[in-house]
Each structure stands twice: as C-alpha cells, then as structure tokens.
Task: structure prediction
Amino acid sequence: MQKIAVSFLLVCLSGLAAAKPADLLVYKVFEKGVEPYISRILITDTHIRLDEGAEQGNFTLYNRPEKTVYSIEATGKTILKLKPMATEVPSNNALILTEEKQRELDAPKIGDISPLHVELLANGERCTSMTVAPGLMANAMSALRELKTTLALIEADVVAQEGGLFNNACEMASNLYGATRTAEHGLPLSETSGQRQQVLLDFSEQHEFADSLFELPKDYRIADPKPLLQ
Result:
C-alpha cells in the first residue's frame, strides 16, 4: 500500500512539473456567414497561444521574448514563422483616432469594477464598440498589447513592400496605426467591429495548462514567409 501511495505521488508531481501557469480568456465569436466558434487565449510570461479551445488543430503561438509569431496549420503540418523587420509602428498624420467613453451604470459590476462602454473612431468613422472592465486581467491585457504591436510591425513590413492595402480608415487603424486600441481600456467583455462580434465567456488568472500547448510541433515543416512578402 505504501509503495502504491508513493508511486501515485510521483505521478502527481511529474504532472505538476509538466504544467505551466497561464492566464485564460475565452470568447464566443460571431461572424456573418460562419458558425459561431470559440476563441481561446492562453498567456504566460513567455508565450501567447490562440486557438479554438482544443489542444489539436490549428493555432497561433507568439514567442514574447523573440517577438515572433508562429501560425500552425495542422492539415498540412506546416508552421509559418513571422518576425517583423520594422522596429516601430509608423505614424499617419492624415488618420485621426478618437474615442468616446461612458460608464454603463445599469450593467452589473464585476467584483467592484463598473463596466465601461467605449467607442473607437477613425476619421469620424465608428470602428469598434466595446464594453470593458477597466483594470481586470491587467497582465493579460499588457501581453495582448505586445502581440498586437508585433502584428502591426509585420503589417508595416507588408505595407512597405506592397503599399497601402486598406479599404478604409478603420482598417488602417485596427491593422497598423492604432492596433493596440482595443486592449488599452480594460478587459473586453463584448466587442463589435463591423460584422464581427465576440463575447467573453470565461477568464481566469494563473490557470495550469500542459507545457506542450506552448511548444511548436516537432514534426511540422517551417514554411518560408518571404514569398508572401515579396
């Protein structure tokens, strides 16, 4: 009996050693013409993983120290590696970014936090409507601003090579010149941009997940992104 108990303890300890604490955000996403789906975000000190709530299948992995984005495609077993060459997001004096804020007095509090309604505009065009919880999941929101900045730098590389690819002021703001705006006001409880809406289903700090979720598949081929940027 004692031997069995010791063996069980060792198994438990090895399981804990293979777990990594991560912040968790889970959204349900609604898009026109697409069945609603789950968007799960896992955030550690070194990585951000974005997937649809499953351990298998496609996902995106962001290496925070290396500022590198990996897009993993399960069917073809390929990994697209994207690391920006640009070092700063360019400015655009012709693009005027503004915002409108209002406390949602009738909305229930989350702990002691009163939700805030935020409207994001670009050149007077309403781009995004959000309800946020200011100060909630602050570390996670800081990490998402890091990711959005890196994605904007990657977009800047594409624009530098191919020229402007945007249809309107909102696209210019969300993809490049104001990419972090949706993560600057607090944890989004709901967010609507154009025909896309997402609603927060769950959030948690320092949840334990398997280390393997933050690793690149070893048997996948790393695709060269250069042809995509030429």
